[in-house]
Amino acid sequence: MKRHLTILFLSVLTTLLSAQTVAPADSLTAAQADSLTAADIFRQLPDSLTPYLSQNNRLDMLDFMSANMKAEVTNLLDGKSEMTLLSPDSLSVRLSDVLTLGIGCGGTGEASGSVRLHYVYTLSPEQSEHVTAIYDRRWQLLSRRVVSSSLLHNNLPM
Fold first, then answer.
1. CA angle at residue 90 from 88 to 56, to 5 degrees?
2. pLDDT tens-digit readout, 120-136
3. Per mean pLDDT, which range of 15-19, 93-97, 102-106, 146-150 is the poorest?
4. Contacts from 7-14 at CB under 8 Å and sequence distance 24+?
5. Cβ 110 vs Cβ 116: under 8 Å
6. Model-level pTM?
């Protein structure tokens, strides 16, 4: 349990600091930005937003999925990460036993050409936190919000 909390803490810390450390991507026209698929976004994702996966890990996952193989790789923490869903407008990756990453192309209420990253931190069925971050195509953070969290609620004394 202590290891899971440490991994969770490091993941949250890295995610929170990543908005300060990501390098801007090449400038895209609006038409190019809107035509990118979830796989394109996953390829271009800065390493600082996926501290578990290198760019080669991400590319391997995409190759495995396109070959209809199990898209599992050994991550940078020597654990297993697996892409579980890939469609043109979204994908899902189980980064570890406690962290899942979802990526979606801009949708209703989001800026055109934006990228939505959805992190789910799960310590147990009763303890989880869902965080959504929206980035522009230069990987500048537009917004971040905790959608739901039961991590603190279940740990508070009654």
1. 85
2. 888 777 788 888 999 88
3. 15-19
4. 7/77, 7/96, 7/98, 7/99, 8/98, 8/99, 8/121, 8/123, 10/51, 11/51, 11/52, 11/95, 11/99, 11/119, 11/121, 12/121, 14/48, 14/51
5. yes
6. 0.69
